Amino acid sequence: MILRPKSSPRHHATPLGAASTAPMAPVPAWLRRAIPDTQSLMGKDIEEVAIVAGAAICALDTVVRRQERWAGAWRQRLALSAAAATAKQAGRVEDESALRDAVLLTRPGDDVGPAGLLLLAWRRLAARPAEELLTKRNLAAVLAEFGYAPDDEGMSDLTDDLRRLAASDGTVGMMTGAIAAAERHGFGRTLGVWVADALLAQRMGWVHAVPLLGADAALGTSARPRRSVASSVATSIGTNPERAKSLLAAQARAALRAIDLSAELERRADRLLGVAPKLRAKAADAVVNKLLCDDAIVASEKISGMSDRGLRRLFDRLVELGAVRELSGRATFRIYGL
Predict the structure, then answer these.
(1) Does residue 125 contact residue 209 with C-beta atoms inside 8 Å?
(2) What is the per-residue burial (b if ≥16 Cβ within 10 Å, else e) of 171-200?
(3) Where is this region: Disordered (predicted)?
């Protein structure tokens, strides 16, 4: 049965129909050329890669601080990409469409399956306030979504390490330390990049985290390591500078992908907001807001003042106007988004 997806927090909104007037943050051509791929990384010094990564994060910071109405959909689309990469690295077959179906076509409270839980973990990173992401309660939920058995001692040790890292100087050491801490306590690299994204958001003062590192295949994933052989949080960057360089390059690539996606979604959001005044349905405003706040919504979304038939007709109209896309490719159980 198709039921409504889990909702995301609402964001500060401009009046319905008002398109964004803020200029897009440009990505200089030199920065695009300078961001290394896995092949060119070997010939670069860590200082050079750090400068490039810092410039990319600065450009991303400009986008984040605009707090656009479509930022919720943007972060959730990035979360979907991270979940798909995580699933592939774990040897699963689900792609983005299958992951989306697992969550959106499941009754609230029902089991979404292991793949759906991966998506919920990354959606949690994108939706919850950044300041709440690394609490013990939230981390316990994330660990369960990533498939780990409850481990109160390991989680407590991890949160202690993350607290020290958050208070430390140096963003590079903080990020590499976060991944090393997750591995050292037996939780693997996937959780490590999740907490690294959370720490970056807190360090930057962002209201919400932006899923970045999870979608980078170069970082890969690791099986749960033995605690006795994992590296020390305090010395991770000093003993393994190549790992720090790889992380910085991945972060720069991820920031560029996020910026490019923001430009694409801004154009689509502007189109949606441009046609919004033409919509005659009573609850059209609520539908537009949902489309701006989330990756996608199902055609049977329960919206006050809107019948199922009325909602389907509204979506048909929006597709006809080029304001939204049907994302499933199916004739039934359809899903719509920017």
Answers:
(1) yes
(2) bbbbbbbbbbbbbbbbbbbbbbbbbbbbbb
(3) 1-21
Instruction: Name the residue among 202, 338, 265 with its Cα closest to residue 24.
Output: 265
Could you tell me how far CA 200 lies from the centroid of its own chain?
A: 13
Mean pLDDT of 232-252: 70
Nearest to 328 by CA among 302, 280, 295, 281: 295
Measured over the CA atoms of residue 175, residue 181, residue 184 and residue 185, the dihedral's sign is negative
DSSP-derived pairing of the beta strands 325-326 and 297-298: unpaired
The residue to which tokens 């605009």 are assigned: 66
Q: What is the tens place of the pLDDT at every residue in 52-69?
A: 999 999 999 999 999 999
Looking at per-residue confidence, does 236 or 328 come out higher?
328
Q: Is residue 11 within 8 Å of 293, Cβ to Cβ? A: yes
